[in-house]
């Protein structure tokens, strides 16, 4: 078998929507962008959706819209995709790394609070793998300390705590990269309930213009194309179904995998399984397991094999060489993600279980 880690679905609805855009001649900003923004924001219960060119620019624009800049510190997890940190650096601020919860892999509220200094302006937890971070705790800390609460929701389309969606606790950034739970090929979205932040975000993504050729702030070209939005709107209509399929596939793995630690789901939290991430802690060498699974046609991957603070760019900066983040370090050596996407067949699910169990 050849089972990829992700398999984006592009159907007739997406193709028709793209052709409609091409025929219209409105390739950048157009009706699909506005409709996609409204649909995605409404689904999550946010007042504003601002479409961006990708998830990284969404993070950057969120920080800029809140005035985060030189001399400021933003507390983030080191166990995440690099853009979580690079977006902070890009606005001139200083990333401060916190450790993770060993069960959910999301940033630990206790570790984050310990990292707060007089220069801290924001906490930015990541809803890693599709499991929500502990947003009630982060919200309480930010309220008590007078800090901004931002969300890196790149992997959390439809995740929730109770009835409240991830992405509505603070200004939140999503990604629509092809491996995500839904895609626009490339694209991102910022959700916010703050009218002024939404206004600033729309200017930042469009060269700082509040109206044509009137530039109020320094801005960039972070616009989503109308083509990408057309794909996204068609994909969005299937998001709930695809998330349900991911959850069903995850439950099958939970029921059949042996001697590996399967993903934790905290009470009242909805996990949307952007990744199904197991943990080897019984003497099995994770890298050898990865190699064997790949040789047998299973596109398992490691997200992430190196903490961000140990990346060369950070090791070349002062203050990052001696960080003590034990749970982060441990996770990078033990985690492995299995294909969980909605296109998996029953035969493929059974084959994955068989091959993983044979490792143990």
Q: Give me the CATH fold name of the largest domain.
A: Aspartate Aminotransferase, domain 2
Q: Ranges with pLDDT <50 over ≥5 residues? A: none
State the assembly state of the protein chains: single chain
The number of helical runs is: 13
Please state the structural category.
alpha/beta
Strand order of the largest sheet: 1-9-8-5-4-2-3
Largest sheet: 7 strands, mixed
Which percent band covers the strand fraction?
Answer: 5-15%
The domain tally reads: 2
Q: Please give the CATH class of the largest domain.
A: Alpha Beta
CATH homologous superfamily annotation of the largest domain: Type I PLP-dependent aspartate aminotransferase-like (Major domain)
Average pLDDT works out at 97
Instruction: Categorize the overall geometry.
Output: globular
Q: What's the total count of β strands?
A: 14
Structural description of this entry:
It contains 13 helices and 14 strands. With 360 residues, it is α/β, with parallel strands linked by helices. It has 2 domains: 12-236, Type I PLP-dependent aspartate aminotransferase-like (Major domain) (Aspartate Aminotransferase, domain 2, 3-Layer(aba) Sandwich); 239-359, Aspartate Aminotransferase, domain 1 (Alpha-Beta Complex), CATH 3.90.1150. Strands 1-9-8-5-4-2-3 form a 7-stranded mixed β-sheet, sandwiched between helices. A 3-stranded antiparallel β-sheet has the order 7-6-12, with no helix packed on it. The longest helix has 18 residues, at 239-256. It is globular, with a radius of gyration of 20 Å. The two termini are 21 Å apart. The model has no long low-confidence stretch (mean pLDDT 97).
């Amino acid at each position: 078998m050849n089972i990829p880690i992700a398999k984006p679905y592009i159907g007739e609805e997406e193709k028709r929507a793209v052709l409609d855009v091409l025929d219209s001649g409105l390739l950048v900003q157009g009706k699909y962008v506005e409709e996609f923004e409204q649909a995605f924001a409404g689904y999550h219960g946010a007042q504003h959706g601002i479409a961006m060119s990708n998830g990284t620019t969404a993070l950057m624009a969120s920080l800029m819209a809140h005035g985060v800049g030189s001399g400021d510190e933003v507390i983030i997890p080191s166990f995440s995709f690099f853009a979580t940190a690079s977006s902070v650096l890009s606005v001139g601020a200083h990333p401060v790394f916190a450790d993770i919860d060993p069960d959910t892999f999301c940033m630990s509220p206790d570790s984050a609070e310990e990292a707060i200094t007089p220069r801290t302006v924001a906490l930015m937890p990541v809803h890693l793998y599709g499991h929500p971070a502990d947003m009630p705790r982060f919200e309480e800390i930010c309220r008590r300390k007078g800090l901004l609460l931002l969300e890196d929701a790149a992997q959390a389309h439809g995740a929730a705590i109770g009835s409240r969606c991830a992405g509505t606790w603070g200004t939140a950034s999503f990604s629509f990269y092809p491996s995500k739970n839904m895609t626009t090929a490339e694209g991102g979205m910022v959700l916010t309930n703050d009218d002024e932040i939404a206004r600033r975000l729309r200017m930042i993504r469009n060269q700082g213009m509040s109206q044509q050729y009137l530039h109020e702030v320094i801005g960039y070209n972070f616009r989503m194309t109308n083509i990408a939005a057309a794909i996204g709107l068609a994909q969005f209509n299937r998001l709930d179904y695809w998330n349900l399929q991911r959850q069903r596939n995850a439950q099958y793995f939970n029921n059949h995998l042996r001697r590996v630690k399967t993903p934790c789901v905290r009470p009242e939290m909805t996990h949307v399984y952007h990744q199904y991430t197991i943990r080897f802690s019984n003497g099995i060498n994770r890298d050898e397991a990865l190699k064997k699974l790949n040789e047998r046609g299973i596109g398992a991957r490691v997200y992430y094999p190196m903490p961000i603070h140990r990346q060369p760019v950070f090791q070349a900066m002062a203050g990052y060489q001696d960080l003590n983040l034990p749970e982060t370090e441990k996770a990078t050596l033990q985690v492995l993600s299995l294909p969980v996407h909605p296109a998996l067949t029953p035969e493929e699910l059974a084959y994955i279980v068989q091959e993983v169990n044979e490792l143990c």
